[in-house]
Specification:
The complex is a heterodimer of chains A (397) and B (254). Chain A is mainly α and 397 residues long. Helix content of chain A is 66%, strand content 5%. Chain A has two domains: 254 residues, no CATH class; 111 residues, D-Maltodextrin-Binding Protein, domain 2 (3-Layer(aba) Sandwich), CATH 3.40.190. Chain A has 16 helices and four strands. Chain A is elongated and about 100 Å long. By secondary structure, chain B is α/β, with parallel strands linked by helices. Helix content of chain B is 39%, strand content 26%. The chains are: A mainly alpha (397), B alpha/beta (254).
């Protein structure tokens, strides 16, 4: 009987446009679109910045000082530029403000003398702080020029450069590449699964409970000789399946986005995500997703059975969505790991366990504890649902 | 057969409802000490104004609501003790019955046949009989959302009757329907009687009651204020029409 209800509810759900959008279309498309857009936009602005010809004003009483010479000699690959020579800073701020000049260097008149006598010179750089790219270009120029002066000084003084670098540190990282990226970027994956898992559960839950109440089909269903718990389980299975499907489609979207459309320009990230998409990882993830989505269904059913309209159900579930998403941010924090405390905290344990799975460092005992904790809270939520579903005031509109 | 003995139904009131109803009572009494019997092959009509307790009573008979006290037996099965066994014999139809808009007529009928445990051969036979009787062949593959109100009501009837119930409950079955669709329902109720089924229906349309009814009870403010056979009700009328007599009984018990 449960299967009959499940089959019918699934068919009904799959014919609902809203559910299809939340369960399949959005999860599949959102990742490639976001990734594609962000990489394209970043690339476009980086290229634009690189090719932009900067008008740089050099203010000095001596236009042939060593700084200006070295600045003029910077190769084109470091960014195209046009130098404008000035003797004073009159009207300079206005010109930078209206963007006719992007940068200005104010060089002291005795710059050459200071350098020749191994003294420090102060150079003022006028720029517009909001143009982050211009500041980066200045830093590149200055670092290059400063380095050339430094080397000349060492030659002149007959000194070794190691004199100013008493310690040469060498880091030997014993973590695997997968581990490093897993711990750093692994927090994103559970965020993706939890949010899509929740949204995937939400629309079928509203449709199968509030919707049935609104359409007055629930009353008819309750006149049939089917125990209420079987009706509940049949409907719940559809909600759980939708949540898992939405999370899986998000994973598929990520895979398709990276592989087929080649939206991730960084080959390292691409290789890591390809590495994540192994049967073991997917299986482990599904094991964790199952109690999680049952838990979602278990907390959504009482809300949707209580609500009298689709709108009311949505407004009840939206704050729940925020509460559920909050623990996923733990995944982005660097120093919180899955241990014998966090493994007992629902949702947080799923987030941290996913990170560990991505990194390949999951402790099987902690994985089992996390799973069992989620199974326990899922069971409590199912019992709660059953109690609410049995309440007459909830089922009769 | 339906045997109803001293049923009572209380609904818990939320604080909001208490405020709205301007009461400090924690419960609202919808039905009190209602008793009656409906015999097979006879049509029993439950009459009453809006809010009298008709729908609550019928929902208890159908097993949707549980009585706070009292007992209901459907063909000698106690619906409180054995609800799923009792429900196998019941068909329930209301004027506002909803259908799954995204499913076809065939899918709905098959679904309910399965829920009632109808065997495949019985299902095919009954489906054919009902589709022919109701003229449903032309739209059996169409989704409910694309059907007219009349077609939808035919699907509802087929859904109610697919398991050949011995007891049929109609809660204001013609309410809000056009004349032709209402006529189909009247014919169905009449056919049920011919087939020896136990039929109970609620209505406040006296012409329907006059046409169909063998026994009747008038419910007002949750209490049965009159119970009789239709013939005796007609014989003892103090006014010149059924409607006037109905109003008189209600006013007398206000």
């Amino acid at each position: 009987m449960i299967f009959t209800i499940f089959k019918k509810e699934l068919k009904d759900t799959l014919r609902d446009r809203r559910t299809i959008i939340a369960m399949i279309v959005v999860p599949v498309l959102v990742f490639p679109i976001l990734l594609g857009l962000s990489t394209t936009v970043t690339k476009y602005f980086a290229e634009k910045q690189k090719e932009e010809v900067l008008n740089i004003a050099v203010i000095s009483s001596d236009s042939d000082n060593q700084f200006t010479q070295r600045l003029s000699g910077m190769p084109e690959e470091m960014g195209p530029k046009t130098l404008v020579f000035r003797e004073d800073t009159l009207g300079l701020k206005e010109e930078i403000q209206d963007d006719s000049i992007q940068l200005a260097f104010v060089i002291p008149s005795d710059f050459d003398a200071q350098q020749d006598s191994n003294q420090q010179s102060t150079i003022q750089v006028y720029h517009k702080g909001v143009n982050v790219g211009n500041k980066d270009r200045v830093r590149t120029y200055l670092s290059e020029i400063e380095n050339s002066f430094l080397l000349e000084r060492f030659d002149r003084l007959n000194l070794d450069k190691t004199l100013i670098e008493p310690i040469n540190e060498e880091y030997i990282d014993i973590s695997s590449r997968k581990e490093v990226i897993g711990k750093l970027a692994g927090g994103f994956l559970p965020y993706l699964f939890i949010i899509f898992g929740f949204i995937g559960c939400m629309y079928p839950a509203i449709d199968l409970f509030t919707g049935e109440k609104e359409r007055k089909t629930l009353e008819t269903l309750l006149t049939t000789p089917v125990p209420r718990w079987k009706i509940l389980v049949g409907k719940m299975l559809v909600i759980v399946l939708s949540g898992i499907a939405a999370a899986s489609f998000a994973l598929l979207g990520m895979f398709v986005g990276l592989r087929v459309f080649d939206v991730a320009s960084n080959p390292e990230i691409k290789a890591i995500i390809d590495g994540i998409l192994t049967p073991t990882f997917i299986l482990a993830l599904l094991i964790l997703l199952l109690p999680l989505t049952i838990f979602f269904a278990g907390i959504m059913i009482p809300a949707t059975i209580y609500a009298k309209s689709f709108k009311e159900a949505q407004s009840v579930l939206t704050p729940v969505n925020f509460i559920i998403i909050m623990p996923t941010f733990v995944g982005f924090l660097p120093n919180i790991e899955l241990d014998y405390t966090t493994a007992f905290i629902p949702i947080v344990n799923i987030v941290l366990a996913t990170k560990e799975i991505v990194a390949g460092t999951i402790d099987p005992i902690l994985m089992v504890i996390s799973f069992m904790t989620m199974v326990a809270v899922a069971a409590i939520s199912v019992l709660f649902s059953y109690k609410r579903f049995g309440k007459e005031s909830n089922i009769i509109s | 057969m339906i045997q109803v003995q001293n049923i009572r139904k209380e609904f818990e009131l939320t604080k909001k409802q208490q405020k709205e109803n301007n009461t400090t009572d924690k419960v609202a009494l919808a039905v009190k000490d209602v008793s009656f019997e409906c015999q097979p092959g006879r049509i029993f009509s439950l009459l009453g104004p809006n809010g009298a307790g008709k729908t609550t009573t019928l929902r208890m008979l159908a097993g949707i609501l549980k009585p706070t006290q009292g007992s209901i037996r459907i063909n000698d099965i106690d619906i409180q003790k054995n609800p799923n066994e009792a429900k196998k014999d019941i068909g329930f139809l209301t004027g506002s019955t909803g259908l799954y808009e995204r499913l076809t007529a065939n899918e709905i009928i098959e679904y309910f046949a399965k829920l009632y445990g109808v065997s495949k051969s019985d299902y095919e036979e009954r489906k054919e009989h009902l589709y022919t009787l109701l003229g449903m062949h032309d739209f059996q593959e169409k989704r409910i959302g694309r059907l007219s109100t009349g077609m939808k009501q035919k699907v509802s009837i087929a859904r109610t009757m697919i398991h050949d119930p011995k007891v049929v409950i109609f809660d204001e079955p013609t309410s809000g329907l056009d004349v032709i669709t209402a006529e189909n329902i009247i014919k169905l109720i009449s056919d049920c009687k011919t087939q020896g089924k136990t039929v109970i229906f609620s209505s406040h349309i006296m012409s329907e009651v006059d046409l169909l009814c063998d026994d009747l009870a008038i419910i007002h403010k949750g209490k049965i204020v009159l119970r009789n056979t239709m013939q005796e009700f007609r014989d003892n009328m103090q006014t010149d029409s059924l409607t006037a007599e109905f109003i008189r009984v209600i006013n007398e018990n206000n």
